[in-house]
């Protein structure tokens, strides 16, 4: 809904449903679509897939997500388009949660410190996701691995900080619904942390010994973490059911022109 205020400002109300769809559901659905497209239309690529750089003799019927969204075409271009649509709404989650936790914040320096670090990790998660999408595994493996680490570490810290702030801000005590949401967050953080740590073990194990089961375990954990990420942020739909974001478009300030220096300068006598 768009409205015009008296001072000429154009304001647009953005519904929470739109933010959840674009900022939470879109990347998960887009990623799973790329994977499904590969299995349906490019199954020969799956059957012939090997990790040629590290372990050329090891075949895997479940390649990592990085290949489906960053290497194979046309999935790669579809995923980049998803990222183009996803990034702006994702920033709204930072605004929503920071404002909600600040409004519920007790007069505690430690609580506000957690909000501060939570804001930083929200930004770093988005940066890591964009870097993983743009810098694919074939472009530079080390940089891609660092970007993946930034994304997964930031996501786990976001789950941790969100759960802590939800509890110590007193939000879970306001209704039974928020108590259930908090318990879901705790469960997702614990299980998501286990999945994340498993990727830090399974992939180095595969690189060191070329064990197919380790590579398969890494891919399964990646596939699950994609869904975890989307669902965790989807919880905001129930946390802010009647929330609306107002986006304002303001008129540019009028330019102030400075007087030009006169071309003729009158010389005054010294005495």
UniProtKB/TrEMBL annotation:
Annotated CWH43-like N-terminal domain residues: 18-241
Coiled-coil boundaries: none
GO BP: GPI anchor biosynthetic process
Taxonomic superkingdom: Eukaryota
Transmembrane segment boundaries: 18-40, 77-97, 117-135, 141-165, 186-209, 215-235
Keywords: Membrane, Transmembrane, Transmembrane helix
Keyword Plastid: no
Alphabetical list of InterPro entries matching this protein: CWH43_N (IPR019402), PGAP2 (IPR039545)
Pfam families reported in the protein's UniProt record: Frag1
Keyword DNA damage: no
GO terms under cellular component: endoplasmic reticulum membrane; Golgi membrane
Name by which UniProt lists this protein: CWH43-like N-terminal domain-containing protein
Species this protein is from: Ancylostoma caninum (Dog hookworm)
């Amino acid at each position: 809904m768009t409205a015009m205020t008296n001072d000429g400002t154009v304001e647009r109300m953005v519904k929470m449903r739109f933010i959840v769809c674009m900022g939470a559901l879109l990347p998960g659905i887009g990623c799973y679509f790329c994977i499904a497209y590969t299995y349906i239309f490019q199954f020969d690529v799956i059957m012939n897939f090997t990790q040629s750089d590290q372990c050329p003799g090891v075949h895997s019927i479940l390649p990592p997500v990085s290949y489906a969204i960053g290497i194979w075409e046309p999935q790669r271009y579809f995923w980049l388009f998803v990222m183009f649509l996803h990034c702006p709404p994702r920033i709204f989650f930072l605004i929503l949660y920071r404002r909600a936790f600040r409004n519920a914040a007790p007069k505690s320096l430690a609580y506000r410190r957690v909000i501060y670090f939570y804001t930083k990790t929200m930004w770093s998660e988005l940066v890591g996701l964009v870097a993983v999408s743009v810098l694919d595994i074939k472009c530079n493996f080390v940089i891609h691995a660092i970007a993946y680490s930034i994304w997964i570490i930031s996501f786990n810290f976001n789950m941790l900080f969100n759960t802590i702030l939800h509890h110590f801000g007193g939000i879970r005590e306001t209704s039974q619904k928020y108590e259930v949401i908090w318990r879901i967050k705790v469960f997702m953080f614990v299980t998501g942390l286990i999945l994340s740590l498993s990727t830090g073990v399974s992939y180095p194990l595969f690189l060191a010994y070329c064990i197919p089961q380790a590579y398969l375990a890494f891919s399964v954990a990646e596939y699950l973490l994609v869904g975890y990420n989307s669902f965790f942020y989807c919880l905001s739909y129930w946390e802010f059911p009647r929330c609306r974001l107002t986006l304002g478009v303001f008129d540019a300030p009028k330019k102030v022109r400075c007087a030009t220096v006169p071309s003729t300068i009158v010389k005054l006598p010294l005495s």
